[in-house]
Amino acid sequence: MLPDYLVPLALVFGTAMLLPRSWLSGRTPRNMAVVALFLAVAGVAWRYLQWRLGETLPEPGTAIGEQVFFYTVLAIELAVWVETAILFAMLSRRRDNSAAADAGEARLRALAPADHPTVDVFIATYNEDLAVLEKTIVGATSLDWPEDRLRVCVLDDGQRDWLRDYCATKGVDYLTREGNAHAKAGNINAAIARTDGEFFMVLDADFVPQQNFLYRAMGLFADDNVGIVQIPHSFYNADPMQTNLGMRGQMPDDQRLFFGEIMAGRDGWNAAFCCGSNSITRRKAIEAVGGGLPYGSITEDMLLTLAMLRKGYVTRYLNERLAIGLAPESLSAMYVQRARWARGAMQILFLREGPFGPGLKLQHRILFLPTHWLVQPLVVLATLGMPAICLWTGWSPLPGATTSEILSIQLPAVAATMLALRLVAPGSYFPLASTVHTALQTPRTLPTVLTTLVRPHGHAFKVTPKGKAAGNATDRLMSLAPSALVLVTAIGLYLNSDINTRILDTADQLSLTAVWAVLAMLVLSVVQVVAMSPPGEIEEEKFAVDVPCMFGTRPGQRIAATIAHLSVDSATLRLADATDMHRNTRWLRLDIPEVGALKAWLQRVDGNVAHVAFDLPEGERRDQLIRALFTTGLDNSTQTLSAFRVGLGLLARILHTERRVETLPRPKNAPPAWIELEVARAPIPPELRDVIIRPAAAWTQVAWMLNGMTLIDPATLEGSVEA
């Protein structure tokens, strides 16, 4: 016989085991498998709620303070279950539009160029630097679409002369306006009034479209009721939590659950919404709602979706990696972004065009309520702060509950919920990581939510800083506040460990609270680690490739190597012999397929791996490298591990010390004349002309199969090398 506390979990786990794993993470028609799993969880949760509301209420005569504490916790808990029910409803109806995109692409590619719809591409910018903007502009000009049916426009609210000149060299339109009224929404509306394409595509300054973006997305507009097609926000850099923990390779970015699963579920209810960047909008639909984006909320994109729903237009979601951009590059940048999102979501509650206004179906009213911006921070505060409150006051959130009841009723309900989410979203939901991330941003988002509920409008619009403007400072508040709470909790544990100073009444209460307190302190310690940003400047992100290249450390020399990682300003080379590149080597010539010969310098050598940096000035060769890295489908996103290994990795970071790697700086002397001459004279060696830059997985077997290329004897490198 199973113990009582394992029976509910066995029900959920058994249901999951009866269903093919691919069905749980799949799409329609296999969503019925997800429904079956969620119904099993609902049974366990219903059993818990009956017990919670019937058996754990305060006794008559309980002190007012303890009653306030109890009912506050109960209200938060009930709100969580409502949010969970809504989330499960969304995930049970996920829609996959890839098949429709396949059919649409085939239909569009069969058309004559003149029969393609016209598309305007809007790149909205305010203060981003060229290192950010150049990738997006080059990517937009590389879109696979008939040239005379495509117009690329840079919308510069910063009114910068250097950007106007850059746009002229790239052959794209440069548009400005008088003033900056209504921020990004006003900028886009000004461009809508000055263009006439049948559709317009919006890109934030940092999002680079893949070359096949339009052919994949435009086919969904075959349905006349589709007003917007939204593509997920995928990133080519690590977010602050991945960076500060050093876990880019083990843990997905914090937006994967939303863009990977939730938006697909919303689409199944016709409640997907425009997320600003990576969207295409039908001009007829925008004209139906007044000819432009609404101004009532600083999240104008969500408000636009609601306005279109009232006119019969839906937003379709195509869950494919068709554009890549920058996740917030620092904690401060992330806080600015999330506070803006939270404020905008709250603002729509006060608008006639919001979820409480006329003309919406009940499902849309429910799914567009932004309650998660309030509920999630409160849950994390309660979860991490409650052990300290209980240890210092003796209060209990579950008065009268025994250890066996908690283990057999409450614990299975919580565990079953997390297990179900893990099974349905195995690559994007990680309970510990989610808790840490919410705790990290709560001190910024919760005050924003509360102040917006009191005063919805009149707040300044803040752009998420990108590039050098993002900074890289440690979050002092979140590096100190968790320490303070850990200290208070630890002292409370110490006091209650002695019968003479014990505050908690029963041994049952003490043992459960002690376990909870230890877990809370571990989570708080991880939060503190995340708040400590590593020193150093933000570097360009590298892509994993496996591409043949050549280098030389003296005139006429050609040595074969393989590029393992590549960015727009650096590369990691695998060498046949470490003596090919040694510490006396500073300047070298590097030949990259599709790009040509570059002036490079050595940063460091690790065994048979050399790290080099290079100068690639603005021009066609730099554009070609950007196209190869950012617009052809190279994917440097995370390969996620199991939830257990991710959780263990998070906890291990509490004691982990990051090892700083020293690199040699750029040489102070100019490159040797022979390098300058060879770079100018021989852009791409004949041996590399038919080689293209491809991802590592697809290129492993042929990396060294170059006809006519031979390794030069390392002995020829002996002696002096030009520095």
UniProtKB/TrEMBL annotation:
UniProt cross-references to CDD domains, sorted A to Z: CESA_CelA_like (cd06421)
GO cellular component entries: endomembrane system; plasma membrane
Localization in the cell: Endomembrane system
Glycosyltransferase 2-like domain boundaries: 121-289
InterPro entries: Cellulose_synth, Glyco_trans_2-like, Glycosyltr_2/OpgH_subfam, Nucleotide-diphossugar_trans
Keywords on record: Glycosyltransferase, Membrane, Transferase, Transmembrane, Transmembrane helix
Membrane topology: Multi-pass membrane protein
Transmembrane spans: 6-24, 31-49, 69-91, 373-395, 477-495, 515-533
Gene3D superfamilies noted in UniProt: Spore Coat Polysaccharide Biosynthesis Protein SpsA, Chain A
GO biological process, one term: cellulose biosynthetic process
GO MF annotation: an example: cellulose synthase (UDP-forming) activity
Top-level taxon of origin: Bacteria
Annotated PANTHER family: CELLULOSE SYNTHASE CATALYTIC SUBUNIT A [UDP-FORMING]
Name of the protein described by the UniProt record: Cellulose synthase (UDP-forming)
Source species: Palleronia pelagia
